[in-house]
Every structure is written in structure tokens, then in C-alpha cells.
Write a structure and sequence with these properties.
Elements: H1 2-6, H2 35-43, H3 46-52, E1 53-59, E2 63-65, E3 70-78, E4 84-88, E5 94-98, E6 101-102, E7 117-121, E8 126-133, E9 136-138, E10 144-146, E11 150-158, H4 163-166, E12 169-177
Parallel strand pairs: 2-12
Antiparallel strand pairs: 1-3, 3-8, 4-7, 5-6, 5-11, 9-10, 11-12
């Protein structure tokens, strides 16, 4: 069998059905863009899909000294034994914030197109993202404003119209102390 493939005997110059070759797509495929994700959009109602996804934000400690970066983890999990897809309002599938300021930036970082997208989860899939907040808010392209001691809320959610109301959002509170 190996000799057949090495000899290019299966290659056809005039036909699109050459074994082992796939048609190129203009849109790159992301994790969760497969057939199961497409079928789940047709079969699973949006509300059931939203109820099946849990979002959690966690840090390794509750207090941090002034100036120490704060690492946090965002975990999203599909509790269902089947694939689900969540329609998002833009190609940015999820985002995080500090005290309601998206990505801790008062400057618009990117301008996504106004086209919806889909965030797909396979059955029982858990997605985990690691981020780090440097205890500062971006106030211009090159300028950061460092925060003073106090409590701050780090939140994360899927990029849907109402992530809090949909249950696709979580937050945690950290305290910055002077040591």
C-alpha cells in the first residue's frame, strides 16, 4: 500500500477528488469549529447552551503587595455530554476587566468588526486562560496609571449581549496592601 502512495498513482490532474487533500477555506478553523459545533448551533437552543457553560475567575491569593503583578485564571467549562456553541457579538469571544474597565485599559485597544461569531465547546470541554494584571490602568498608548492600595474586582465573561444575566460571567475581589 505504501508504494501506491509514494508513486503518486492516486494523484489526478483533472479532478478535485485527490485522496488526502482537502479544500482550502478562506476562514481559518479554530478549536470548536468542527461539524459537532455546527450541529449544536442547529439542535441546542441558545439558552440551554448558555446554562451549560460555567465561567470562573480565580487568583492564587486574596491579598497582594503594591507593585506585584496579579496573576489570575479564567476557566470555562461545558457541563453537557454534547457540544454546545455560544453566539458572541464579535470575533472577540471573551474578555476580562478590572473594576469594569475592559482589559484594564481606558484606551480602545482594538476595533473588532461588527459581525457575530460563535464560541464552541466540545462535550465536557474545559478551557483555561492565564492572564496577569500589572496593578495599573492604561490611560494612553504608552502611559499606565498605577493603582493605590485598596480592593479591586477582576471579572471575566463571554462576549455576549448580557454576560451577567446569561450566567456567563464571574468575578473575584483582590486586595492590594502596602507592605
Amino acid at each position: 500500500m505504501r508504494r501506491i502512495y509514494e508513486s503518486n498513482a492516486l494523484r489526478r490532474e483533472d479532478g478535485p477528488f485527490t485522496p488526502g487533500e482537502q479544500e482550502e477555506s478562506s476562514r481559518p478553523r479554530r478549536n470548536g469549529d468542527g461539524d459537532a459545533s455546527r450541529f449544536s448551533r442547529l439542535l441546542v437552543p441558545d439558552r440551554l447552551a448558555e446554562l451549560s457553560i460555567s465561567v470562573s475567575v480565580s487568583t492564587d491569593r486574596e491579598t497582594y503587595p503594591v507593585g506585584a503583578p496579579i496573576p489570575f485564571t479564567v476557566t470555562m467549562k461545558n457541563a453537557m455530554p454534547f457540544s454546545v456553541s455560544i453566539p458572541t457579538v464579535s470575533p472577540i469571544l471573551w474578555n476580562w476587566s478590572v473594576d469594569g474597565v475592559t482589559e484594564a485599559s481606558r484606551v480602545r485597544l482594538r476595533d473588532p468588526p461588527d459581525e457575530p461569531d460563535v464560541f464552541g465547546f466540545t462535550r465536557g470541554e474545559r478551557k483555561q486562560f492565564q492572564k496577569r494584571w500589572p496593578q495599573a490602568f492604561r490611560v494612553s498608548d504608552r502611559e499606565w496609571e498605577y493603582v493605590s492600595p485598596g480592593t479591586y474586582t477582576i471579572g471575566a465573561g463571554l462576549n455576549v449581549a448580557d454576560p451577567v444575566g446569561s450566567g456567563l460571567y464571574d468575578e473575584t475581589i483582590v486586595e492590594i496592601v502596602d507592605r
